[in-house]
Amino acid sequence: MVDYRYLGNSGFKVSEITYGNWVTHASQVGHDAAIATVHKALDLGITSFDTADVYANTAAEVVLGEALGGLDRAEFEIFTKVYWPVGRKGPNDQGLSRKHIFDGIHGSLQRLGVDYVDLYQAHRYDYETPLEETMQAFADVVRQGKALYIGVSEWTAEQLRDGHALSTQLGFQLVSNQPQYSALWRVIEGKVVPTSEELGISQIVWSPMAQGVLSGKYLPGRSVPEGSRATDEKSGARFIERFLRDDVLEAVQRLTPVAAQAGLTMPQLAIAWVLQNPNVAAALVGASRPEQLEDNVKASGVKLDADTLAAIDAALAPVAVTDPEETYRVSPKKRP
Q1: Which of 31, 105, 134, 283 has the fewest C-beta atoms under 10 angstroms from its C-beta?
Q2: 130 to each of 95, 97, 156, how far by Cα in Å?
Q3: Cα angle vertex 232, ends 254, 323, to 5°?
Q4: Residue 263 to residues 98, 266, 282, 315: CA-CA distances in angstroms?
Q5: 149 counts as catalytic
Q6: pLDDT in tens, 53-72
Q7: Percent helix, strand and coil across the chain, each rounded to 5?
Q8: Which segments does the entry list as coiled coil (predicted)?
Q9: Buried (b) or exposed (e) across 174-197, using 16+ Cβ within 10 A?
Q10: CB neighbours of 176 closer than 8 A, spacing ≥ 6?
Q11: Which residue has the higher pLDDT, 175 or 288?
Q12: Which listed residue (4, 19, 55, 218) is catalytic?
């Protein structure tokens, strides 16, 4: 079964392997397979589910809501997000204005078929809306019982500090940040993680397998596998491009004996690696087939020894991205 961790400086626990439906539901994966994968996640002990209104332009929330329908609401945790353009994508159908946050939470609750979400997240930082307006709207959402906790995604250290200060003044908790993080993409370690540790904010990390590259299935000098994420423009192909260089793929292949020595598959090693960071509350995993989750959940509770961690660092150090300045390039300076 899957272990649990506290989310930020709160009493709220989430499954450290959390199911995310970014590029699968209503997109890469058919309806019946999506439902079956959610049910498999529950069978394996995953109770936390991450989605967003923008995924498949709201359709991914509908699929997740259907998959969880009929279950006792206390048995699972739902995270969703607001920021990116949705629906008709008009001028107020995006960003973190008070209007869009309230339209967003009402739409998400309806699509998910629940009375509240456990965690409502700012999907990016909105430079066009005063932070005070955004945080006041989140405070009101919490007070109305429509979300229990508030989180953000891909905020910089300074943005986290400012958001935390306002949330404290307004009487609610900013408990989490959702950044990209893997053994190949370590940009949060320099500033975001130390600031988060100081403030009592956890990381819910996406792409712990670097879009599948750390699974080892992409080989240097070879064409990408047919049907893989790298071939599908709808399923994150542009995110994986940065990792498809031969020097990166050669470095990843050096992890094969490391994983074998640790008694893990390559995906398990990648997920276990991010979970060694005590500031990480959960690693987001997706799946196009239920059996993929059976492998992934075995990373829960794994403790990597010092020699294994050193071997991973040695293999990937020449190609891993560690520059904290990358965290300042994620949120658009203007709304899409």
Answers
A1: 31
A2: 11, 8, 16
A3: 50
A4: 50, 10, 22, 18
A5: no
A6: 999 999 999 999 999 999 99
A7: 45, 15, 40
A8: none
A9: bbbbbbbbbbbbbbbebbbbebbe
A10: 7, 8, 119, 121, 149, 151, 152, 201, 202, 203, 204, 281
A11: 175
A12: 55
Q: 4-329 has which CATH code?
A: 3.20.20.100
Lowest mean pLDDT among 14-28, 47-61, 196-210: 14-28
- Taking the domains of the chain in order of start, what are their residue ranges? 4-329
287/206: higher pLDDT: 206
Collect all residues with Cβ–Cβ distance below 8 Å to 303 and sequence separation of at least 6.
276
Burial of 232 (0-12, 13-18, 19+ CB in 10 A): middle
End-to-end CA distance of the chain: 41
Tokens 């299935």, residue? 217
The Cα–Cα gap between 158 and 328 comes to 10
Res 25 pLDDT > 60 = yes
DSSP 26-62: TTTB-HHHHHHHHHHHHHTT--EEE--TTGGGGHHHH
Q: With contact defined as beta carbons under 8 Å apart, do 125 and 331 qualify?
A: yes
In sequence order, the 6+-apart residues with CB closer than 8 A to the CB of 310 are none
CA distance 314 to 254: 9
Stated pTM of the model:
0.95
Helix spans in 119-205 (H)? 131-143, 157-170, 192-199
